[in-house]
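User: Fold both of these, please.

Assistant: Here is the first one.
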Amino acid sequence: MNLLPQPKYEQWVWMALFAVAWLAGNGLSVWDQDESAYAAFAWQMRTSGNWLIPEFLWSEIHRKTPFHFWSIAVSYLLWGVNEFAVRFPAFLATIGTVLLLRYRAAAVFGKATAQAAAWILAANLFLPHLIKISVTDASLLFFETLAVLSLLRFFKQPRWQEQLYFILGTAGALLVKGPPVLILTFGMLGLILLFSPERKKILAFQPWLLFPVAALPLLVWGRLAWQTDDGAFIRWMIDWYTVSRVNNEVLGQTGPPGYYLATILIAFLPFTALLPKAFQQLFSGYSWRKPDFKQFMLIAWLISGWLIYELLKSKLPAYALGAYPAIALLLGAQIGQLSTYNFRQQNWLKGGLLLYLVLCIALGIGLPLAAAAPVGDGFLFNSTGILAARITGVGFLFLGMATVVFLLRAQMAWAFRSMLAQSIFFLLMGWLVLLPSIEPLRGATKSVARFMAEAHPTKTLLLSRNFHLPSLPYYLSTQAIAYQEATDAALWQQQLAAPNTLLLLNSSNFGDFQSAAAQNTFSYHLVFEQPGWISDKGQLTTWYVVQAGAPTTETESAVE
């Protein structure tokens, strides 16, 4: 029995709903740190003409290989310099990954499994957030998936076209983020060489030729970048993104073994009830002497894309993203067998159902509690946001319980649609209602730039410490507002006394400025005040724009 959406009109309805869910919130202000830095790199490349080395104020640690920045810069040409344009390349990459799974995985895993896997990956709770926070990982996943599926299709039926697709996927992934695609593909080829009867096909695949060819675009860019700054950026990047992450945690981004298992259980939450059974079937009856081709390739994919990262000290949820299509394929095979399952009798199914229900309850209760929790001396969400969190939590839990009932009653087609609906509901509520309720706080740096553009477009804004948020100079730059760093507090009064100059402060240093001004009888006035939230630190603050001299009617009205 095929449980997937069958009539064309139903498929189009579900696809339209996913498109809306994926696009929801894509016009919200950029996130600090990574997304705003990437948006700024692209803007700087367009305006400076330096397309080789990403550069922007307060963004040094976010520099990477340039493909993602190039794609955003091209998107600016299509849509203008705005948040939607920043996220559009990630949107296309995510669609591309789902389509790769739908059409190119079928030759290896079967059409029904590939179709189900595509729906499951589309309903993943983690992947769509890589669109709405436009980091490099959505593009990386697309190219990694292209490379891996080309590798698997070649070992299923050797064809030179698959070698070409493998080169394109590997080359693109190297230009997006460098080493992760090599860990994934080298790992899979190594496991094939050691354990698979298909190892002889490695000779026909010719990886010793394909990898150097795939590396050519990266090497050309690297050579040109090296010549630009005598290798300073390339040396820094090798140390920061390879050596440091293997040997140490970076920026406190760490976790114990099992970290990625926890993220996978949450990311695939609409289908978590099937995960224990999926893993049990993958390993049960497996023969290392005569391994099943599909089983072996999925195991190799999971080891190389997921388990290797469990051993590293530095951890972020997106590091193991390369294994998500493999997990979607595992779950897709379960959908094909779902009509034969009895969730009341099989222990692996009962355990998965219990795990799924516990996670739904935890999210359904935890989300409203988190929204109502204090942040420092204040609250992030207002009453509207707290109500939205409650509705989201209750609705998510209701759909989860409906899924459980459908599974227990063997109404599998309804269960599958309930899982899809649960994902869509969560994304729509989160990005159309919940997060917009805190946009005035989260988008405070954008509000500062808008104020400058409207009230003081020809003046220079001095930036004090300001948490080093790339979104602040990014929005100022795109509004054509002149700015400069003012890191020495002892010089603030002298700098502020210059004509057409304002100073931006925040809660952490505004009091010190007031005390120094009073001590030196320095005359200033407040022209703008904006409460804000520093998302990467989980910290509330207030931004203050001050100007030298006595208050005027114009500046007093600006504060109002």
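And the second sequence with its predicted structure:
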Amino acid sequence: MPAPDRYDALIIGGGHNGLVCAFYLARAGRRVCVLEAHHTPGGAAVTEEFHPAYRNSVASYTVGLLAPEVIEDMALHTDGLEIRLRPAANFLPTTDGQSLLLHNDLDASCEEIAQHSQADADHYPVYLRELGEIAVALGELARRAPPDPVGGVGDSLALLRDALRLRRLGRGAMELLGTLLGGSAAQLLESRFESPLLKAALGFDAVVGSNASPMASGSGYVLLHHVFGETLGVRGAWGHAVGGMGAITQAMARACEAQGVSIRCESPVSSLLTEQGRCIGVRLRDGETLHARQVGAAINPRALFTQLMPDTALPEAFARRMANWRCDSASLRMNLALDSLPRFAARPEAGTHLGAGIVLAPSLEHMDRAWLESRLYGWSRRPVVEMLLPSTIDDTLAPAGGHVASLFCQFFPYELPDGRCWDEARDAAVHDILEWVEVFAPGLRGSVIGQQVFTPLDLERRFGLTHGDIFHGAMSLDQLWAMRPALGYGDYQMPLPGLYLCASGAHPGGGVTGLPGRNAARAMLASRSP
């Protein structure tokens, strides 16, 4: 029998990717322990009561990228997880009474788009079809470790396989992919559509968790990343987990425990243990040491390599890469407890639009100005906001007559000018956000009876999200695929033998997908290391 503190694998961090990785390892017969700093597993995908009788997803707030095979393998639906589709996809009101509602049904969406542009309505299905073809291809690439472009014969053959897969895309889809990878979201959308509302509704995905304008090169990929998932078999659709995002990670934790995984909460790791150039375990903050054949890190790679291990244990180029790993999604999260439903000036009556992702950014130009404003003043005075009202879909979140609102806000960079701290700026930023929301939903501020706010600094403190980055690192081309987290280490095995990266800082990147955890577990199981 192994010693009590000796495991086959230790997982640092009990977020969704850490739990997924632990599950697959345990299912294969490995003895696994998950070490979570907080009092409950789940990482940023947790649900809390933030005002008496009002609960909501705390940070991560919507379902759309979680891999179907992860749901099936972990039997999450069998364990009671219920996911419901949004009744509509996106609702985009303007400040002058216009609006656009994109439905889950294509024909209904085209009818709505035609009210603004018949040409856009005609082209919209073509755009979705080509985008869908790309999403399927990239979804396949997301499910395996990227080959090393300067690796050996096996990597060369894998590169050829991936190239042949992309070659099967049609000419239109290939042209679209080229624009998405090399250009900006605005460049793509301006070339395809004429309605500012439609361009803004589609372009919102390009700025989610990205500290960059939709006019910036590279923003096209961020848009693409947000559409390669599916919910309940509907590709590109988004949904809500009944009970909030914590319902997902609590079901994952139960699936892990059913496989024999030990989950230790309130167990923050202070450093890695090394011996003869190999990772052999961890030291907890209270001084306890735990040993394992392998260690999986479900945390930001910058935090892992700059805080938990000495630079001397790393190749110089890799240490430099991690010291300069770009983290700053410029995101602020708010939850509001409301005593009544908001009424939007553009569509004041209740309807399916209240169950959509409500995008408060009426044009790509507005998104660009919001980003520029954040560069000049510290944050956007008229930010890009997505509001969700999950209590319209899930009545377990609020008492009768009450509602909860999730606000995801861009652009709020981690570092403020003039040496200011977010603890000092929080109230002013919240004021600006609510002022902007009030423009679209007059009277909303009067219905707020409670709130929960996470600035980028709060996200770092509470969830360990370095610089508040919700993706564990910028989703730019220099930090993607085989370059995530560094060239030569895209296969989840880090420079220190025995150490693996199983979080969103690894391929395929951010969002609640479970794929970095699943892919890393496969790499750990395939390893021949002692």
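The CA atoms of residues 494 and 500 lie 5 Å apart.
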